[in-house]
Specification:
alpha/beta; three-stranded mixed beta sheet; 14 helices; L-arginine/glycine Amidinotransferase, Chain A; binds N~2~-(3-carboxypropanoyl)-L-arginine; globular
């Protein structure tokens, strides 16, 4: 049976704060800080276990090879040439799997298969190196070509950041949906990372029905306030669009366009008077996982920063006291990821599929979660000072940790 599976990125052993993402305010603010890869990966795993315990199917992707073996050599550089290049070669940014690909579930596509396009991530140099290794994992996890169609990334002239700029509305995950693509227009103080043409290309390549596909411009003011992806200011699930009032360039028109394709739409909009754009970006209220629990209730899995913000927590309390469609708010601690601008929703890629059609090595159960926890506690570096990136001994421990993970998961193809 088709169901929504969240594939979280296991936080890699080289997780560090190098300030590589202009326009990502948390990453910039934490540039140069000491990171805690072991704690980061355990927090990520605890989130997966939290969701598994709720009865939600859970998958994962493994960290990419870091330091990226040929990255510096291809630039005529070595670990001493330039700090930012070395940091890029070491980046663990593939943990944010909402940027791994755009996924169109089978009921939305012309050929009735689930279509996936890896994101080219060309805007940020440290992320542009991800897609070939990401594509390799997608090809393993979704090898069943009767159910999945895998595309090449769209050409690099058009920046694509994947599912972080894509939402889906539907009556049920396994039924037909309306897909909403949100793009940014360049010209602001920060890069607009999702190009309209990339979104349109993905929709065409996936064989989506134009009558059930909507393209919306992101609010330039939201990008300028640090919402470098749409999923920092809006998230959708089922019939519900949970959005900040300043998420889109023309908010009313955006709602109308979605409603024209999906009349059952229920909008839960947070006004700026309750939560400013700045507070939304700081707390990542909208970078929540909006999920339908097995009992049918909708829950919002928010970063714990939300419950510490008086403005956000009082809005959430009022929402729960009202009669809205979101019935539960569940905080999770992903602080190590948050400090690099990645909340609960950044850490997961939603794929609607029958779990029986997915390579089981990418699906999590309690037994594997225990094994992963033990391995991370043993093999992940406890901390990384960014000045140590490039050191051979640290590189060796990062490579060894990843290899041990592949061994435990029997994913030797990715070695
Ligand atoms: O691309 N941070 C990521 C965070 C991605 C969040 N994803 C979603 N919103 N879906 C980014 O900006 C920081 C890396 C550094 O600076 O070292 C980083 O890449």
């Amino acid at each position: 049976m088709l169901t929504e599976i969240n594939f979280d990125g296991i936080v890699g052993p080289s997780h560090n704060y190098a300030g590589l993402s202009l326009g990502n305010l948390a990453a910039t603010a934490h540039s140069g800080d000491v990171s805690y890869p072991r704690a980061a990966a355990l927090q990520g795993l605890a989130k997966m276990r939290h969701n598994l315990a709720l009865g939600l199917p859970q998958g994962f992707f493994v960290p990419l090879p870091r330091p990226n073996p040929n990255y510096l050599a291809r630039l005529g550089a070595d670990a001493h040439t330039e700090r930012a290049l070395t940091a890029a070669a070491w980046s663990a940014s593939s943990m944010w799997t909402a940027n791994a690909a755009t996924v169109s579930p089978a009921p939305d596509t012309l050929d009735g298969r689930c279509h996936l396009t890896p994101a080219n991530l060309v805007t940020m140099p440290h992320r542009a190196q991800e897609w070939p290794d990401t594509a390799r994992q997608l090809a393993l996890a979704f090898a069943d070509s009767a159910h999945f169609a895998l595309h090449e990334p769209v050409p690099s002239s058009f920046g694509d950041e994947g599912a972080a700029n894509h939402m889906r509305l539907c009556e049920e995950h396994g039924g037909p949906g309306v897909e909403v693509f949100v793009y940014g227009r360049p010209g602001g103080p920060f890069p607009a990372r999702q190009h309209e043409q990339a979104s349109r290309a993905v929709a065409r390549l996936h064989g989506l029905d134009p009558a059930r596909t909507v393209f919306i411009e992101q609010n330039p003011a939201a990008i300028a306030a640090g919402a470098f992806h749409n999923d920092v200011v809006a998230v959708a699930n089922g019939r519900v669009l949970f959005t900040h009032a300043e998420a889109f360039a023309d908010q009313a028109q955006a709602h109308d366009a979605i409603r024209a394709a999906f009349p059952q739409l229920e909008v839960v909009e947070v006004p700026s008077s309750a939560v400013t754009l700045a507070e939304a970006v700081r707390t990542y209220l909208f970078n929540a996982q909006l999920v339908t629990l097995p009992e049918g209730e909708m829950a919002l899995i928010v970063p714990s920063e939300c419950t510490e913000s008086p403005a956000v927590s009082s809005w959430l309390d009022a929402m729960l006291a009202g009669n809205g469609p979101i019935r539960r708010v569940l905080p999770v601690d992903v602080r190590q990821s948050m400090a690099n601008g990645g909340g609960p929703a950044c850490l997961r890629l939603r794929v609607v599929a029958d779990p029986a059609t997915v390579d089981p090595r990418f699906l999590l159960d309690e037994v594997h979660a225990d094994r992963l926890e033990q391995l991370i506690a043993r093999a992940w570096p406890e901390q990384i000072d960014p000045v140590d990136l490039g050191r051979d001994t640290l590189a060796q421990s990062v490579v060894t940790a990843r290899q041990a993970l592949l061994d435990v998961l029997e994913l030797e193809e990715l070695g």
